[in-house]
Predict the structure.
Amino acid sequence: MKRPLRFDDSLPQFVASLIAAYSGDLATAQPIVIRDFEGRLGVILDIPAADVDQLNTAIAEALGPYSRPEDPVRGRNAAGVSRIVEEAQAAPVLKVKGVNIRLLDRRIVGADWMLRPVLQPGAIPRIAFVSIKGGVGRSTALSIAATHLAHAGLRVLTVDLDLEAPGLGATLLKPEELPTYGVVDWLVENGLSGTDSTFRADCIGKSSLLDGISVVPAFGSQTLAHPADALAKIARASLEDVRDGTPLSFRIQLQEMIESFEATGDYDVVLIDGRAGLHETTAAPVLGLGAKVLLFGINEPQTFQGYAFLLAHIRERIPGGLEWEEKAWFVQAKADPADMRIAQERFNALWNMDEGPLTQPERLGPDDLELVWADNDAPAPLPKDPVPVLRILNDERYRSFNPVENRVQLDERLVRSTFGELLDWLDEQMELPR
């Protein structure tokens, strides 16, 4: 029985079928491949009209359900094609089966992951804290960073974009300091009732932990007073808005929101807490806000597997992806001295992975993907340029982080002993004296 074609093989098979069916030089035909919302494939080729019908028949037979239902192959002169050709000029160039193609990947969700990264910083420095998994101490580290920078005299704005598992509001603010609204309210109201300076002020809470720390939580006191509406607001927060007939993505809405806060002139740095995982809402802090990005993870398979997916996508599918790498740093959270070297090796292998399947080094077990390491944990030779990794030590004293009730967790010597590498990095980025 013939093995059915699956998503991972559909694009290579599509190009292979074009090579086999087209008698001319496919490279000179400048293929523009369009993958639709469901995953079906079509292509625009600069070829004679007489060749199109023959190719359509061959591609439909070879691709089956992965072929565009009508006319999977179109010429450059077909109706509506000129607009697509123009759009494709900004699309990534991929080498598939030895042929360079431009890929337009249509998505209902995840579209922000396809946009060119914002490489220019905002009006003031922005630092995004992101992770593949929750529970790695990402929000705790952001809170420590906020108090460290505020202690140095900077005015710090923290923004909680972890809309489904928020933490900054409860961590940095007393209940009476929680503002009326938060990020979720902003994303709902900017497309309905609108946002103005009064609404903006009602989204900011001032922390009594230390002068200079302001918090835009995911939710404000109004949501806590009406908790049954929280899920309804979350469901609408990440949707596109439409303004004057133009769709505004989640990324653009966040850009506008943060720029609005920055425009007050009240802050020297913005710290952004992103959602864990690879959801579309994570794309904005990773790629869309011009932030320096701290990629948190602990030394476990899920960390390296998830970041392998992320890095491969950015490097292979996003124009400007390599330039983005200059703005990203790994953070090994909950690090133990005994595993630091092997963790460094694994981060090096991840950062220096080749294009193609995520095989390598070693094997974990039947329930894990193939991105694994050697059974004996023998470290591989270091690459020529080891990737920098900031380490936050595993410290039981921070397992339950609640500085509002336990100020000892902000003791300078305790913080320095656990988060020292992160604090030194912050001082360097913000050009603070040590």
Q: What stands out?
A: The mean pLDDT is 89.
